[in-house]
Amino acid sequence: MSLDEGKPFRRGKRDPSVDRVRATARSFTARAIHGVKGCYQRGKCQDKADSPSILRESGWNLRRMMRQRGSGTRETRTFSAPRAMTLDVILFTSPKAGSGAAREQLPRLAEMLAAAGIEYQRIACPRELNAVVTRRRETGVSQPVVVAAGGDGTISLVASSTFPETPLLPMPMGTENLLARYLGQSNDAGAVMKTLTDGRAVQIDAGEANGRLFLIMATAGFDAEVVRRVHLRRKGHIRRHSYLKPIWQTCRAYQFPAIRVTAIDVNGEVIQQRQVGWAMAFNLPCYAAGLRIHPSATGDDGNLDLITFAGRGLLSGFGYALGIVTGMHRRFASVQENHVLSLRFESDQRVAYELDGDYAGRLPLEIKTLPQRVRLLVSG
Fold this sequence. Notes:
Layout: H1 16-42, H2 50-69, E1 88-93, H3 101-115, E2 119-123, H4 126-139, E3 145-150, H5 152-160, E4 167-172, H6 178-183, H7 189-198, E5 200-209, E6 212-214, E7 217-220, H8 222-233, H9 244-253, E8 259-264, E9 270-276, E10 278-282, E11 304-309, H10 314-326, E12 335-340, E13 342-346, E14 352-355, E15 358-362, E16 365-378
Parallel strand pairs: 1-2, 1-3, 3-4, 4-16
Antiparallel strand pairs: 5-6, 5-16, 7-10, 7-14, 8-9, 8-13, 10-11, 11-12, 13-16, 14-15
Helix pairs in contact: 1-2, 3-7, 8-9
């Protein structure tokens, strides 16, 4: 009977296969929505572009199952949300370090960490940092990676507040950033993130000067006096031109007082003593402006590399500076080098010393080596 004959239309019996297809569609849609919601709540999706891909995957599964119904075959693909990384991070920031584009990398890094599902917290107080890593050590919890956002002084401060097993990653925002340059680490958030996820850990020595940790160098003499004057004038972030006036003032006023340098063996016995005008102890072969004062210094040999300049006076100072720039200073008869475990700088006059580019006080200064004291995370 047709509709044209004026008879009412009666719905026929529903095909059971249609119900099964509709149930399958509802199931896959619910799973896709649940997966997307879970990803966003746990911060595991990289960005919103992930959600269409999840829905597309579920739709692909549905279409494939529907196509295969006729052939009597069925393929199942399991959907799973991206897993969060087990890494956790502390962002330690120096309020004085960095400006402009460099400081803008910090929120970018925080966003990347959150998108990757990596737990992190911000800390700016060394005591708070020490409390966190100490609590972890005492409870047997693995140490976090500490990203030190600042200059060389910041990474030294972080190292002194943590343990030898705590991985440290410099995010350079200072003036010279000697350690970060030595490691080849930039302050770009993407580069820091890559080192966090793909980097490797290396163990290096450190030095201790009057109880304070340093990673690169400890010096006493002309350059330390310049750093002292910069420290007195500092009101915020230091730039290279900040050193011009202090250098000029030091050239006019510094008298190159005598510094007594004493090398000491592991038993505390004096093995060498000399009187010089300028003394430097290096853990790593780094110095400001890329100068290579002690290029053979090695950070994992268990020793500090001592270099002294015997000449005193402005004329000798200019000669040494010219020799350092040309790389000829190590050939001077008045320049001596030694590998030492510990040493002492003393003077009868007021002589400044600096650690890793920061003014730290006046002599006397007791220095010793701390083998394998610091763990650094470096790019693979």
